[in-house]
Design brief:
Layout: H1 4-21, H2 28-50, H3 74-94, E1 98-105, E2 111-117, E3 125-127, H4 131-137, E4 143-146, H5 151-158, E5 168-176, E6 179-188, H6 196-222, H7 226-236, H8 245-259, E7 264-270, E8 276-284, E9 294-296, H9 304-308, E10 312-314, H10 317-320, E11 339-347, E12 350-359, H11 367-398, H12 408-425, E13 429-436, H13 439-446, H14 448-465, E14 471-476, E15 479-485, H15 489-505, E16 508-510, E17 513-515, E18 519-526, H16 533-549, E19 555-557
Parallel strand pairs: 18-19
Antiparallel strand pairs: 1-2, 1-6, 2-3, 4-5, 5-6, 7-8, 7-12, 8-9, 10-11, 11-12, 13-15, 13-18, 14-15, 16-17
Length: 561
């Protein structure tokens, strides 16, 4: 088959070469050829500028709407990659056992193309009618699939390699403007378990990724200002969990300064009682309000977006919205502000805040102003929501659900970090392993609910007995672990004795049942007892069991027996 595009380019180049060799021929035919070559070259340059070819098809094609990320400028392409990277980092930080991949619909609606993955197990393309994929894309909720339940479909998808039979996959469909856009897949290896928390995480991340893709496309389409696209893309990247609220608001202020004309900018966030809000950012006139001020939502100008849940754009708000004050009912404005553009920061149906810009003069804000601020508030809404969700997911991943102490996995990671720090700064470190004495009798006699109550109260005692820099964890069952940072055995012993005393003196009283408990503790010290984490744990564990053999309710260090 002849490639018509290549043939056209060849013809144009030949004609250009002829005109270069014979630069001054006359006659109407040569004039027509010159015009043809000139226009053709412009067309080619235009195409090469806006539609560079890539090796991987990253198009999102849906019926009635076919945006293509190949048309996104370099900054948005990088932002798209950053979005996928963020998703994968979230998944790995929450559950490192997962392999993950994202797929998007190709120009052939029957296939999906790999966008990014953490494993070579995922193929470059998948067929949409594969039973595994059908199951995933037909549901809004995450689908859990065991490899041994769908052996043929699994083999067709991942290849005929030596699977152990215990693998499982979880997937959720991705949407683009309420249409199918692709899917997010997570695969767990041999005998790894999938719990409800993991399903919830996947549901959140699928929703977040879908919203992120739509938002990037919206950024590209709505506004032609390249600088703005770049800056709002950077703002979107502030989904980084480490970024602070004031840094986000400062960037918002700089964007508003660059693209909007106003005399006063005010950003407010609602308080928990939902009847008032707090001023979080001010720019321009600030004599009539200051950071931290409380505004009333009822019967105030700046409370209207909270009440109505919609954009306010008025050149004379006093006539259009006869409210009793700007911030507080009955307040008298110091400056004669007339025009206001006020837009709620929303995510789904939740109002997370309000951005308002005001002018002294009577002038309606333009449609471009409205588009700009709506896109900005939409972006901020996503950032605030997903930062909060990530914090909750991360906390659930590293904390024990009952005691709110670090779980076993997180404790080992933190212990390893602190050992590295102690080595770097040539400091000591003490590991305490504690175990409640005769706890099985409590569960057997009074049931697990009372046992859980005992564990929560003991956990509170542990947290109250150590510094903020120390580490408290539930080691497992009725066992606990404490890492005392920059401490030796001599200074750690009084801490352990204080914990033992508090537990023995505490009256565990619930539902008419009152019991007394004791606890045993063993200690090991870095580097005196060992420089290896496994040996430190083993030494502290053996010391704790030595205490138990001698009746419990005491503490000894490794080597003291």
């Amino acid at each position: 088959m002849i490639n018509l595009r290549q043939l056209a380019i060849t013809v144009i180049l030949v004609l250009s070469f002829i005109l270069f060799i014979f630069p001054a021929p006359t006659g109407s035919i040569f004039t027509v050829v010159k015009i043809f070559v000139f226009i053709s070259v412009l067309v080619l340059l235009y195409q090469f500028n806006i539609d560079p070819s890539t090796k991987k098809d990253r198009s999102i094609n849906v019926v009635g709407n076919t945006p293509n990320t190949n048309n996104i400028n370099k900054e948005l392409e990088e932002n798209y990659d950053s979005l996928l990277e963020l998703i994968f980092n979230m998944i790995i930080s929450l559950n490192p056992d997962y392999k993950c991949a994202t797929y998007m619909l190709s120009t052939n609606l029957n296939t999906m193309v790999l966008q990014k993955s953490t494993s070579n197990d995922f193929p470059e393309q998948i067929v949409q009618d594969n039973p595994l994929i059908v199951k995933i894309i037909n549901l809004d909720a995450p689908s859990l699939i065991q490899q041994n339940e769908e052996k043929n479909a699994w083999t067709n998808l991942f290849g005929d390699k030596s699977w152990r039979g215990s693998e499982c996959m979880m997937g959720i469909r991705l949407k683009y403007n309420d249409h199918l856009g692709g899917c997010l897949l997570l695969m767990a290896d041999h005998f790894k378990t999938v719990n409800d928390r993991d399903k919830n995480i996947l549901s959140y991340l699928g929703k977040y990724l879908s919203a992120g893709i739509s938002k990037l496309q919206r950024i590209e389409k709505l506004l032609g200002d390249k600088d703005f696209r770049i800056r709002i893309s950077r703002l979107f990247n502030q989904l980084n969990i480490s970024s602070k609220e004031n840094e986000l608001l400062d960037e918002v202020k700089e964007l508003c300064r660059a693209y909007l004309r106003y005399d006063k900018l005010t950003i407010t966030f609602p308080k928990s009682n939902s009847s008032s809000a707090t001023v979080k950012m001010i720019d321009g006139f600030n004599e009539d309000s200051k950071l931290g001020d409380i505004i009333e939502i009822d019967n105030t100008l700046h409370g209207l977006p909270y009440k109505l849940g919609e954009t306010i754009n008025s050149s004379n708000w006093i006539e259009e919205y006869p409210v009793k004050g700007r911030f507080i009912q009955g307040d008298i404005q110091q400056y004669n502000f007339n025009s206001i553009l006020s837009i709620p920061i929303k995510y789904d149906k939740d109002i997370l805040g309000v951005i308002s810009i005001e002018r002294l003069e009577e002038s309606v804000f333009s449609e471009k102003d409205v588009q700009f601020l709506e896109l900005l508030t939409d972006t901020i809404g996503s950032i605030l929501t997903w930062k909060n969700e990530y914090k909750k997911m991360y906390k659930s991943a590293i904390h024990d659900g009952l005691t709110d102490l670090l779980n076993h996995k997180a404790y080992k990671e933190r212990l390893n970090e602190e050992l590295s720090r102690a080595k770097r700064f040539k400091q000591s470190l003490v590991l305490l392993i504690l175990d409640l004495d005769k706890f099985k009798r409590i569960n057997d006699t009074y049931g697990h609910l009372y046992g859980d109550y005992v564990l929560t109260e003991v956990s509170a005692i542990l947290k109250d007995s150590v510094r903020n820099i120390d580490i408290c964890a539930r080691y497992g069952g009725e066992e606990f672990a404490i890492v005392l940072v920059n401490t030796d055995v001599e200074n750690a012993r009084p801490v352990a004795e204080r914990i033992i005393e508090k537990v023995s003196e505490f009256h565990f009283n619930k539902d008419g049942i009152e019991e007394n408990m004791t606890i045993s503790a063993g200690m090991s010290e870095y580097p005196n007892h060992s420089i290896e984490m496994k040996k430190l744990i083993a030494h502290a564990d053996l010391a704790m069991y030595e205490v138990k053999k001698n009746g419990g309710n005491a503490v000894i260090a490794h080597g003291d027996y």
